[in-house]
Write a structure and sequence with these properties.
six-stranded antiparallel sheet; 43% helix
Length: 282
């Protein structure tokens, strides 16, 4: 059984009433092929346990990482965004309105994920794309190309969804992995958020030497860094061995504890993007 699930957990009565108002709303939805009752059930599940949100078989790791923090930190706003998106096809970001394309509302097919997740994550991904539109029936190659998330898109979603005014990216293409993790740790402790760009096969998978050398050449996955970051300093005992790096993260609908050596971090950890409010300590 997954340790991050609590089958007896319930949501705050205030949030429950907010969901009930959504259910009672007479406004017709603009998504032709989505079911309102299922969306509300999906939202409730995620309010009980934010780890329920996941990208499924869609390349929406970037939006999923940010929405995970939205649910954890601003559950009321998560409900409001979902209701407005379902009923009106748009929602107010902190600095601009986010509007879904009509073709996305009319699209149908195998969503490969829960309806509430598709509605919000596909909207965020599609609005950020300038060339490749999001569609559930798109071939896998097109879906993968359209799902590539850049650091500045993470920054934009953090700003519009969470309202954080300070965003900063710490790329580690050549070096700086441990400094980036320290920046993530600082942001989280200050009440902010941090997202890591990794190569998932290299950092989390088991690869042969040749496969690991191939996979290291590109990043392919965004995760939410949750904290508990520990970087073992080099000592006389460990100087000729690999020190350990540990941290917790959210990815693919679950909490993952990373415990690996520094060489793996240097090979497969590609950077951090952090966000926090202007008034939070630096």
């Amino acid at each position: 059984m997954r340790s991050d699930l609590n089958p007896t957990a319930t949501i705050d009565p205030r949030l429950d009433e907010r969901l009930a108002k959504f259910a009672r709303s007479p406004q017709t939805g603009v998504w032709n092929h989505l079911d309102k009752s299922q969306i509300i059930e999906d939202i409730r599940d995620r309010l009980v346990n934010p780890y329920q949100i996941q990208q499924g078989e869609q390349p929406f790791c970037g939006p999923a990482a940010v929405v995970f923090e939205l649910i954890r930190k601003q559950p009321d706003r998560y409900i409001d965004i979902c209701q407005n998106l379902y009923e009106h096809g748009s929602f107010d970001g902190y600095t601009k309105k986010i509007t879904v394309a009509g073709r996305l509302c009319r699209s149908y097919g195998n969503l490969r994920m829960a309806q509430a997740d598709w509605m919000l994550l596909a909207t965020l991904r599609d609005c950020a794309n300038t060339i490749v539109p999001v569609h559930p029936k798109a071939p896998r190659l097109i879906r993968e190309l359209g799902g590539i998330t850049k650091p500045w898109e993470i920054n934009g979603w953090v700003k519009e969804l969470l309202g954080y005014s300070q965003m900063k990216s710490h790329p580690t293409i050549l070096s700086g992995e441990f400094r980036a993790l320290q920046e993530a740790d600082s942001a989280i402790k200050d009440g902010g958020v941090a997202f890591g760009l990794i190569n998932s096969q290299g950092l989390l998978g088991t690869n042969s030497f040749l496969a690991s050398r191939f996979h290291r050449i590109y990043p392919n996955h965004w995760v939410t860094i949750l904290g508990d970051i520990s970087i073992e300093p080099s000592t006389k005992i460990t100087k000729n061995k690999q020190s350990r790096v540990q941290f917790d993260m959210y990815s693919w609908g679950r909490k993952i504890h990373v415990n690996t050596d520094t060489a793996t971090i240097k090979d497969f950890f590609w950077g951090v993007t952090v966000g926090k409010s202007l008034g939070e300590a630096s």
